[in-house]
Amino acid sequence: MxxxxxxxxxxxxxxxxFLFGRKEQVSQAALDKExxxxxxxxxxxxxxxxxxxxxxxxxxxxxxxxxxxxADDDEGIHLKYIINEWADLKKRVFSERRSWVxxxxxxxx
Length: 109
Description:
Radius of gyration: 29 Å
Largest sheet: none
Helix content: over 70%
Strand content: under 5%
């Protein structure tokens, strides 16, 4: 009788450990799913601009700087430099984002 009682208690303990461990795995999977969805949403909201759109935006910003700040002013020069760097980075991101379509062999290297 004692052996049967001990066996039942051990089985109940194993069952409880199994259920609580599974519950933790399910909650972790739900958190991972939420993180993935949030990342996917942030990618979908990202603004993708073509080279011409980037050039137009850069030109508009440079005109605005020239109107508001003197072109010879150090701040104006620094702002134009930052804007040009931003435009170059956006162009590079646009090119790299599409490069895997045109050059799939680069990804396999």
